[in-house]
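Duplicate of #3305? Posting structure anyway:
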């Protein structure tokens, strides 16, 4: 006999705050995380969010920072970091974009 439960499956909580804390810890001294935004994202097969972080700092290239951040195994319960990019937005300003999808 198959039993049906009317309760909808629960979705994992939004990882934005946890991702912000983890990113702040990984940035290290000399970097300041600024404003961040969260935009819902979906494709035909996945549901997630784009997390955009403005940060300022000196002495590290965007490419080196991107390499360092992509090497990290992010621990976000119920979510996977699918993509990460770092772009320069001025002499000492960068934009970090992280795409997370629900696991």
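Output from current build:
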């Amino acid at each position: 006999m198959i039993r049906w439960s009317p309760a909808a499956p629960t979705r994992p909580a939004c990882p934005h705050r946890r991702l912000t804390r983890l990113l702040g810890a990984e940035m290290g001294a000399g970097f300041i995380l600024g404003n961040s935004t969260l935009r819902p994202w979906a494709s035909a097969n996945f549901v997630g969010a784009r997390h955009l972080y403005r940060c300022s700092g000196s002495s590290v290239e965007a490419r080196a920072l991107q390499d360092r951040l992509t090497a990290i195994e992010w621990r976000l319960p119920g979510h996977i970091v699918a993509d990460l990019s770092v772009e320069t937005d001025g002499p000492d300003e960068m934009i970090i974009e992280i795409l997370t999808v629900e696991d």
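Confirmed duplicate; merging threads. The chain has a mean pLDDT of 85. Residues 57 and 92 are 5 Å apart (CA to CA).
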